[in-house]
Structures are given as structure tokens and as C-alpha cells.
Amino acid sequence: MDASSVPAAPPPAKPKPALGILGSISSAHMVNDMMQSLILAMYPILKGEFSLSFGQIGLITLTYQLTASLLQPLVGLFTDRRPLPYSLPFGMLSTLIGLMLLAFAPSFGFVLLAAAFVGIGSSIFHPEASRIARLASGGQHGFAQSIFQVGGNTGTAIGPLLAAAVIVPFGQRSVAWFGLAALAGIALLLKVSRWYAQHQTATAGRKASTAVAPYPRKVVMSAIAVLLVLIFSKYFYVAGISSFYTFYLIERFGLTVQNAQLHLFFFLFASAIGTVLGGPIGDRIGRKPVIWVSILGAAPFALLLPHANLFWTTTLTIVIGLVLSSAFSAILVYAQELMPGKVGMVSGLFFGFAFGMGGLGAAVLGLLADRTSITFVYQAIAFLPLLGIAAILLPKSVRRA
Questions:
Q1: Interval 209-240: pLDDT, tens
Q2: What is the CA 150 to chain-centroid distance, rounded?
Q3: CA–CA separation, 330 vs 65, rounded Å?
Q4: CA-based, 20 to 30 A from 174: which of 42, 135, 188, 202?
Q5: pTM > 0.85
Q6: Cα-Cα end-to-end distance for the chain
Q7: What angle do helix axes 43-50 and 19-41 make, rounded to 10 degrees?
Q8: For residue range 23-61, what is the model confidence (pLDDT) as tens digits?
Q9: Integer Cα distance of 15 and 8 in angstroms
Q10: Which domains, and CATH codes, for the chain?
């Protein structure tokens, strides 16, 4: 038989994302970040219950964000070398413990301890969950990170609504009911961990050491430094919105706590939508344009915000949430492509740095608010998105090795 008559083998099937796993890990991310956002949403209640200053409010955020930020890169570095598929449910268990401590905290010190447990839970969850999202991406890394991230953003968004509906009318101890959501999250993560253990075993022969960076080390390190500057500008600014927006609306426009939390939800929900868009757009047009537009593009709206009336304040924060939130998925995938084979370490570094900047921002801005006013804080942070101009220093694209 003539060799030329032999039909050519069909091209290999293009891998597809494991949507079930992405949906599960995104749902677990929603539960994890919803429980974190309950702390933020409870600030007006805790402030009244324990007679806290704005500086102490910022210290709560600093505690849970720093415990997460300091541990995440270490967790990621360790699991790059020795993956721990079943660590995820233990991370959620730590968050559950923090939630129970928060519900029954008799003093400000116990509130800080509760915040620390929530931070530890996040430090375990995010690096491994981000690795699983990449493993389940089918090559669509931006899309997978966006699906993973939107779960977290959605959880953050619904926290204020749940606080307004449950915690404000029924008090601090009603937080304990949200432990049921944590138990559901643990069940989801057990399923994900089993899938991860099977696929991690199947790919165990692939050594991270064989991965080749797309640029020389000096270029890679410079690009990582620029990305961290962009993370600083984004999360320091977001800390001012997420931690103090309700107080800003109450002080400036005389809203009730519940109405102010509803406006916070609008901002956080817009952030969730922006997260969905950022990753897939980055897959299509490249990460750098998305990073450039999302950080610097928020600057005009941030500069207008402190001078707007209530209607335009709400409108501007929605636009800021949409634009600014599209950055993180693109930044994270860009960094992972700069440092192939180090997904856990890169994810831990960027999630940890983001949390750390959010916590530091909340603490610094809380002290500034005590000494000046909430309105002055919003005028000061409005210039942070201008740091997006630093994106011009990034390599044009990440070349695949």
C-alpha cells in the first residue's frame, strides 16, 4: 500500500478547561472571601461594640491581611517543591475557626485573634487554589484565573449584603451561622483535592527545573518589581474603599449603616464583573494592554470621586470597580509566564503582597482618618492609580520559551 495513501493522523485534540473543577474552586473562593468580607462589613458594629478608633479598625485589617501576606509566598514556595493537595480543606478549617472566634469575641484582642485565623486560612488557600486553576485551565490561563478570581470577588461583594440582612439586626453572635457556609466550602475542597491529587500524580514527572524563563533574570526581576508597584497602587487604593467607604458615606451623606453597606456592595459587585472580563481579554489581546488600561484608566474617576454628590459617588465607584479589578488576573498570569515552573511561589507572592498592601493601607489610612478626616483620605488616595504609568516599563509581551 502506497504510504501516500495512508490517511494523515488527526491533529491532537485541543485541551479544554475542566469547568467543573474551575467552578468548584471558584465557589470555594467565594466562601473563603465572603467570610473575610464579613469582617470588613462588621466594622461599624465592632466600632460601636468595643468603642474602636479608626486606627484600631485599620489594625484589624492589617492583622488578617499581614498573616496572609507573610505566609502565602512561603506556602507557595514549599508547595512548588512538594504539592499538598489536601491542604485546602485545612485552610478553610482555619477560616472557620476565625469566624467562630469573631462571633463570640469578648474583647478587641479576640477580634484580632479571629482576624489572624482568617488570614492563616487565606495563606493556605490561595497559592494552591491558584495552581489548581492553572492546572484546570486547558491552556486558557487568563480565563481560568478570572473564573477563580470572580468567586473571591463575588464573595467579597455579598459580605456587606449578608451583614446588612443578618448581622446588623441580630448582632455579633449571628456570625456563627455563616459557619455552615464554611462547612460547605470544606466539602467542595475535599472534592477538588481528590482531583488535584490524581492530576498531580499524573504530571509528577514534569520538573519545574526544566522550565525556561522567557527573558534574562535581570529583565524578569525588573518586570516583577514593576508589577508589585502596580499591585501596591491598586490595593492601597482599594483598602481605602473597602475599609472606609461605609464611614465615608455615613459621614458625608448621612446614610444609615445598612444603606451604606448596600453602596459598598455596588462597588464590590462591579469589581467582580471587572475580574471576569480582565482574564479572557488578556488571553486575546495580551496581558500588558489590560494591565495598562485597568490601573491608569481608573485615575480620572478616582480623582473626581471626592468631589461628587451621592449619585455620582456611587456611579464613579462602580466604574472604578469595573476598571481597576480587571488588572489582577492579567498581572498574576503575566508574572506566572515570566517565572514558569514557580506557579505556587508567584501566586503566593502576589496574593500575599496584595493582602499585605491592603492591610498596610487600611492601617495607615485609618490613622490618617483619625488625624484628619475620611474626606481627606479619599482626596489623598485618588492619586494612587496614576502609578499605572509604570506599566510602560514592562516587556511588550511574554515570549513563550
A1: 455 667 788 888 898 899 999 989 988 898 88
A2: 9
A3: 22
A4: 188
A5: no
A6: 41
A7: 30
A8: 898 899 898 888 887 887 788 788 888 888 888 887 887
A9: 20
A10: 19-204+212-393 (1.20.1250.20)
